[in-house]
Specification:
The complex is a heterodimer. By secondary structure, chain A is an alpha+beta fold. Chain A contains 5 helices and 11 strands. Classes of the chains: A alpha+beta, B mainly alpha.
Chain lengths: 237, 175
């Protein structure tokens, strides 16, 4: 039996000339190749390649890689200290529902016209649920001389429960509950299918990431709530 | 659109976008690789996730002069598969909803039998079939990914194809 028949049938040979010349003269090898080919056809016909990627696998994978995850899965939940130092809100931004702000109705026609301001994103940050949930967001950031203008399009985030608000943040390296390194970009209660627009003077070098947490609506400006959206990827606009 | 080598260079510089593009280009093949090698849908997803974590972490070590990006990725995926093989798992390969519905009954039966036959092969035979046939690796690429000599790829490919034929025949499928 010719030594290259396996590679020949499986397609791993760079040059099949030698095998094919041999097959012309060797009936035994021709029969063997035919039988092995039928085997390969059977596994091809079985549709083993017809696999759909689970829609959330990409988010999970990117998060695990970018946040230093491992095969063991998620990191342990952060411990919330009983009493936390209150931080002054160094950067106070106005979050508005941009859709409401920029939508006008053409009088007399009932025609909805969207007149979004010219918005040239310099950077785009993708956010996703850290728990593998459905919520995700895309933040488009325009770096201007006075700071950053942000449009955030959020999907799959239910309205905040009674007594709670969502808070959007610019997040720096090493941030955690014990050593916070983040500044607020504003709060909102519901953003599904809406576009939030925010302004910030946060230094993008120092606070390169964004996040959203669910906070008690108690006036405490520091972060005490759970993360509902975290940065999973960044790219130029 | 960048080629894979540029994406690896971007990843080495910490560009998450490059990782995302590499995922888009290779995740589906890796998931198929995982399902055929591990016979378990959940483990296959873990293989995809952990492979990209390691590729991200090791992007700086990639040497385009030694191997292609695809070989680099599947070499890592294979080592992840070995780690996952060692993990006890009792979850059977789950059939998709569509498969359970019976609309494609005959195809499903064949598919299940073929998966069983594939699962009955040795790891070494499954790996070489997977890389050469499903991932269309060349002999040289497979030798690098499996870390075996070229000649061993040759003999293993033949014995793997024969073993698969026997396994299918034993289940009433095949010539």
């Amino acid at each position: 039996m010719h030594k290259d028949l396996g590679l020949y049938v499986l397609g791993g040979l760079d040059d099949a000339t030698d095998v094919e010349a041999h097959l012309e003269t060797c009936a035994e090898c021709r029969e063997e190749v035919a039988a092995l080919r039928r085997t390969i056809e059977i596994i091809d016909d079985a549709g083993l390649d017809e696999i759909e990627l689970p829609p959330d696998l990409k988010t999970r994978t990117l998060r695990a890689a970018l946040e230093g995850g491992t095969i063991a899965g998620d990191r342990p939940a952060p411990v919330v200290p009983f009493e936390r130092r209150r931080q002054p809100r160094a950067n106070r931004f106005v979050a508005i529902l941009a859709a409401a702000a920029v939508t006008v109705f053409a009088a007399g026609f009932g025609l909805r016209m969207v007149t979004l301001d010219q918005f040239n994103a310099d950077r785009i940050i993708e956010l996703a649920s850290p728990e593998g949930g459905q919520a995700r967001a895309t933040a488009r950031i325009d770096d201007t001389s006075s700071g950053q203008e942000v449009e955030m399009d959020i999907e799959g985030l239910p309205p905040a429960p009674e007594g709670k608000i969502y808070e959007c943040w610019f997040v720096g390296e090493g941030d955690d509950l014990d050593t916070p390194n983040r500044v607020s970009a504003g709060t909102f209660r519901s953003a599904d299918d809406e576009v939030l627009r925010m302004w910030s003077s946060a230094d993008p070098e120092r606070f390169p990431n964004m996040g959203v947490t669910l906070e008690d609506d108690d006036g405490d400006p520091s972060r005490t709530g759970d993360k509902v959206l975290v940065t999973v990827s960044k790219r130029p606009g | 659109m960048h080629d894979d080598t540029q994406l690896l260079a971007g990843m080495a510089a910490g560009d998450g976008t490059a990782l995302e593009q590499l995922y888009d280009a290779h995740a589906r093949q890796l998931l198929g690789f995982g399902r055929r090698l591990l016979g378990d849908a959940g483990l296959a997803e873990e293989l995809v996730q952990e492979t990209f974590v390691r590729v991200w972490q090791r992007a700086r070590t990639f040497d385009p002069g030694r191997a292609s990006v695809r070989t680099f990725i599947f070499t890592i995926a294979r080592s992840v598969a070995v780690d996952l093989w060692r993990r006890p798992s009792s979850r059977p390969l789950e059939l998709a909803e569509e498969e359970r519905s019976g609309d494609r009954a005959e195809e499903v039966v064949t598919s299940v039998v073929v998966r069983e036959a594939m699962s009955s092969l040795s790891e070494a035979h499954r790996e070489v079939l997977e890389l050469l046939h499903f991932q269309q690796f060349t002999q040289s690429e497979a030798a690098i990914a499996l870390d075996i000599p070229l000649g061993t790829v040759k003999t293993r490919a033949y014995h793997a194809a024969r073993a698969l034929r026997t396994a299918l025949g034993g289940r009433g499928v095949g010539a």
